[in-house]
Specification:
heterodimer; A: 131 residues; alpha+beta; B: 405 residues; Aspartate Aminotransferase, domain 1; Aspartate Aminotransferase, domain 2; 2 domains; 4-stranded antiparallel beta sheet; 14 helices; 13 strands; 13% strand; globular; binds FE2/S2 (inorganic) cluster
């Protein structure tokens, strides 16, 4: 079922978001907010041998934000860190069969969250090797 | 699935009796009131005049003080721009509340480009305008004060009688946007001391595309449209006869039934309010607790975003409105337009919450059973959103003595 301007895919992810939650011993955590609307996303990733083996999220936000978060976690699982860094918000929106124009920015949150989480992971790696 | 319409502040269904009254004016009596030498024109003229009497009766006006328009937006534009143009020689200052409808606030923009100054009067955290603030805002060159009767988003009813009294004392015109209250709570233009008042038919079980502006006898207003001399020259264009007839019928029904409906809606609204207060944690009601529209309940819930709430409500068959920038601007062309509600901002709701408010507005055909259903489904919906909210997870951790991850 599509609702108003949202595609069936968006609604599907909104109603049954994948990978909700937290990772206890996460390799990296990325938290981003959208100042325009006050929405917020927190992403946890688990990295093993350069590959993202698990991803979990929590999001406070609109339908598009929740669906984008859910879709993103699906997209990055199994990818290398380098590959995940290349994921754009357009790719997330496309995977959701598109978002309404005013809602494109909601998928930006997803792109930024994965960048932040990986940054956090790399930082932690550096600290480890620095020790 | 059952469907529950709790969005009567956006519009109302047309009353069957209203539709019945309108139908003959499409095919049987199709005349143009301006062409009333023949019988078709006569029927139309009489119908429009009859409707004018009824609408005037609803607000305690005389029929020739009622100008039919295409709706509240036009009425507000006509009042603001029409008065500004007709009284510019006296002064170029206008006072409005900061929670007016966009058709008032945006009508002021072109005036400001033409040298008018506007003072925006603040509201308190319940959305009430303080008449003293209005008094202080009035200057020697003030020509008009515009304050709405009630705010659609938060339901607060403004102290318009007091404001009318002081504008009268100061010799300043007073316009009141009564789109949200017309036919719902009593309006008396004389007791309120208003000089101009906006009404909308589709908010009171009448048809869309028709409204009225009350213009007190002796008050001058320049027209927005150039054309013929309909509506005393204030509104050129052939009258929307079926719409006006429907509006008249809606006014007639409201005169008879408004008090009983309001009483019922007040009870339903209270049941909804109390039920939500009891069942939904972290709920914050907006607007004034008592001075509010009957059957109007507005609120936000911590850690649960407005549009998401609205989607879940809709999936459960419940149609409501949100002050949410996210949902109300879904059709916005770009994110520049994605701004938090100016009304919620005005009453001091934090801006990240401004996107999250919900408005339930009940109408004359809603039932207690529907109210109970909505009370029943709300906790589950809220819980689902809390379960994926990062801030809620932090909150729970804090509650249990842990710390933020
Ligand atoms: S509107 Fe805020 S993220 Fe979608």
């Amino acid at each position: 079922m599509s609702i108003g301007p949202y595609s069936q895919k968006v609604m599907e992810h909104f109603m049954n978001p994948r990978n909700v939650g937290e990772i206890e011993d996460a390799s990296g955590v990325g938290e981003v907010g959208n100042p325009a609307c006050g929405d917020m996303m927190r992403l946890y990733i688990k990295v093993e041998d350069g590959i993202i083996t698990d991803a979990k999220f929590r999001t406070f936000g609109c339908g598009a934000a929740i669906a984008s978060s859910s879709m993103l976690t699906e997209m990055i699982k199994g990818k290398t860190v380098e590959e995940a860094l290349k994921i754009t918000n357009e790719a997330v929106a496309e995977a959701l069969d598109g978002l309404p124009p005013a809602k494109i920015h909601c998928s930006v949150m997803a792109e930024e969250a994965v960048k932040k989480a990986i940054e956090d992971y790399l930082q932690k790696q550096k600290e480890k090797t620095g020790e | 699935m059952r469907k529950i319409f709790f969005d009567h502040i956006s519009t109302t269904p047309v009353d069957e009796r209203v539709l019945e009254a309108m139908l003959p004016y499409f095919r049987e009596y199709y005349g143009n009131p301006s062409s009333h030498i023949h019988e078709q024109g006569q029927y139309a003229l009489r119908a429009v005049d009859g409707a004018r009497e009824k609408v005037a009766g609803l607000i305690g006006a005389t029929p020739d003080e009622v100008i039919f328009t295409s709706g509240a937006t036009e009425s507000n534009n006509l009042a603001i721009k029409g008065v500004a143009s007709a009284y510019a020689h006296r002064g170029k200052h206008i006072v409005v509340s900061e929670i007016e409808h966009f058709s008032v606030l945006n009508a002021l923009m072109p005036l400001m480009n033409r040298g008018f100054e506007v003072t925006y009067v603040r509201v308190d955290e319940t959305g009430l305008v303080d008449p003293d603030e209005v008094r202080r805002a009035i200057r020697d060159d003030t020509i008009l004060v515009s304050v709405m009767h009630a705010n659609a988003e938060i339901g607060t009813i403004e102290p318009v009688e007091e404001i009318g009294k002081l504008t009268r004392e100061r010799g300043v015109l007073f316009h009141c946007d009564a789109a949200a209250t017309g036919g719902k709570i009593p309006i008396d233009v004389n007791r309120m001391n208003v000089d101009l008042l906006t009404l909308s038919a589709h908010n009171m079980y009448g048809p869309k595309g028709v409204g009225a502006l009350y213009v007190r006898d002796g008050v001058r207003v320049d027209p927005l449209l150039d054309g013929g001399f309909q509506e005393k020259g204030l509104r050129a264009g052939t009258e929307n006869v079926p719409g006006i007839v429907g509006f008249g019928k809606a006014a007639e029904i409201a005169i008879d039934e408004m008090d009983a409906d309001a009483e019922r809606l007040r009870h339903l609204g209270k049941a909804l309010w109390d039920g939500l207060a009891r069942r939904v944690e972290h709920i914050h009601f907006t607007g004034h607790p008592e001075k509010r529209l009957p059957g109007h309940v507005s609120f936000w819930v911590e850690f649960a975003e407005g549009e998401s709430l609205l989607i879940f409500l809709n999936l459960n068959g419940v149609m409501a409105a949100s002050g949410s920038a996210c949902s109300s601007n879904l059709k916005a062309k770009d994110e520049e337009e994605l701004v938090a509600s100016h009304v919620l901002k005005a009453i001091g709701v934090p801006s990240d919450i401004c996107t999250g408010s919900i408005t339930f507005s009940l109408g004359k055909w809603n039932t207690r059973e529907e109210v109970d259903y909505v009370i029943d489904i709300m906790p589950g919906i809220v819980k689902r959103l809390w379960d994926i909210s990062p801030a809620y997870a932090d909150y729970i951790r804090q509650q249990s003595g842990g710390q933020k991850s």
